[in-house]
Amino acid sequence: MATRTKFNTVESIFEGRLRGNQAMLSGLGLSADEAALLWQSERMKEVNWLDLDDNDLGDAGVQALAVCPLLANVQYLNLNKNGITDRGLQELATSTCLPMLKRLHLKDNPIQGSGVVALFESQTLDSLSTFQINSGWTCKKREGWRYNPQL
Q1: CA nearest 82: which of 113, 104, 61, 112?
Q2: pLDDT tens digit string along 37-74?
Q3: What digits encode the pLDDT tens for the residues 73-131?
Q4: In a 3-state reduction of DSSP, which class is residue 17?
Q5: How far apart are CA 26 and CA 30, in angstroms?
Q6: DSSP secondary structure string, 54-107?
Q7: Distances, alpha carbon 44 to alpha carbons 10, 91, 99, 120, in Å
């Protein structure tokens, strides 16, 4: 049985959603298969702000993202609400394709903890300094956990 997709081309995903070096792709319901179109697009080389909030990437989509060399300039990555588990975060933590990544958002994903530890201990995400796990909980790698309720 074929998977139904809303987007058949990368142009249809990007349409009206590229703003300079920012790809604002939140709330599209992108599946891992649809996101694969992004990971093949040379236009991703220009992106340093990648907002994928509220999609359906899951661990498979994050695994494909983690090995995409076209994402070398991404500094901000929003993966809130994507069905990502610790397994996906462990894949992300070993990525050599995100050398510039500084900030990572992971709210509202079914994360238990081992993936967060993997990110914190990552030997490849050297620039990653801040990640947000749940509303109000932010980790600064050099400073530890902070809680600042977002009202």
Answers
A1: 61
A2: 999 999 999 999 999 999 999 999 999 999 999 999 99
A3: 999 999 999 999 999 999 999 999 999 999 999 999 999 989 988 998 899 999 998 88
A4: coil
A5: 9
A6: S-B-HHHHHHHHHT-GGGTT--EEE--SS---HHHHHHHHT-SS-TT--EEE-T
A7: 10, 20, 14, 26
Q: At what angle do helices 58-66 and 32-39 cross, to 10 degrees?
A: 10
The one-letter code for the residue type at 101 is L
Ramachandran area for residue 144 (φ above 0: left; ψ -120 to 50: alpha; else beta): left
Nearest to 133 by CA among 68, 98, 84, 94: 84
Cut 0.70: pTM above it: yes
In this prediction, residue 6 has a pLDDT band, given cuts at 50, 70 and 90, of: confident
How many residues would you count in the chain? 151
